[in-house]
Design goal:
Elements: E1 2-6, E2 24-27, E3 48-56, E4 65-73, E5 75-77, E6 82-90, E7 96-98, E8 103-105, E9 114-118, E10 154-156, E11 160-170, E12 181-190, E13 197-207
């Protein structure tokens, strides 16, 4: 699910040589230690988590894109899913191909406990996701087997923006059900004109 619009008044164009290279990304999927916060006393009647954005990283000064990460739905509960929205903006003066964050588990870049999926991902649980772990917070999988499709790519004209939506899900390989804590997600982006760099953001989950 993504929407496009053109930006007005983005300020002076950022001029980069060539304007030939697109933007590539790779979500980092792997294993790491789990969190100690198991939240084992939850039941479907009182289960609630609140998701917020703790921090978003900075892009290089000359990067021709900008990101705006927002919370669309903050609650994870038995009757609802938490949703995020990432707006990617082409603030340069050339058309550009952009690959936004796609999917991955927090354990790749920090404490394990949650998984983030683009609603466009083939294995996304969808915006109607309900945590199956509420009544049984024990791990149900040894690892997460993500599907291996290429991801989402957007061709953006200068001044154009596109939004992608994401669902916050439980990591079934970690004890606990959407455990409270801080979680890191990163994405590697490649520009032909500048060095490779990581862009990432931190989410915080607390009990409602």
């Amino acid at each position: 699910m993504h929407r496009r619009r053109f930006l007005a008044g983005v300020g002076p164009a950022i001029v980069l040589p060539g304007c030939l290279g697109g933007v590539g990304t790779g979500s980092k999927n792997g294993d790491d230690d789990g969190t100690d916060d198991a939240n084992e006393n939850d039941t479907a009647d009182d289960f609630e988590r609140v998701v917020s954005i703790a921090d978003t990283g900075d892009l290089p000064d000359r990067a021709p894109i900008a990101f705006d990460l927002r919370v669309l739905e903050e609650r994870v509960a038995a009757d609802g899913a938490a949703l995020l929205e990432l707006e990617t903006m082409n603030v340069g003066d050339c058309d550009r191909t952009v690959s936004p964050y796609y999917k991955g588990r927090s354990g790749t870049d920090g404490p394990a406990g949650i998984v983030l999926y683009s609603l466009e991902a083939a294995d996304s649980p969808g915006e109607d996701y309900r945590p199956e772990c509420i009544d049984d917070p024990e791990p149900t999988q040894e690892a997460i087997d993500f599907t291996t499709e290429e991801g989402v790519h957007h061709d953006l004209e200068s001044g154009e923006a596109v939004t992608d939506e994401y669902v916050v899900a439980d990591d079934p390989s970690v004890k606990g059900c959407v455990p409270s804590g801080g979680y890191r997600f990163e994405s590697t982006r490649i520009f032909e004109e500048i060095e490779d760099f990581d862009w990432g953001f931190d989410l915080e989950i607390r009990e409602g």
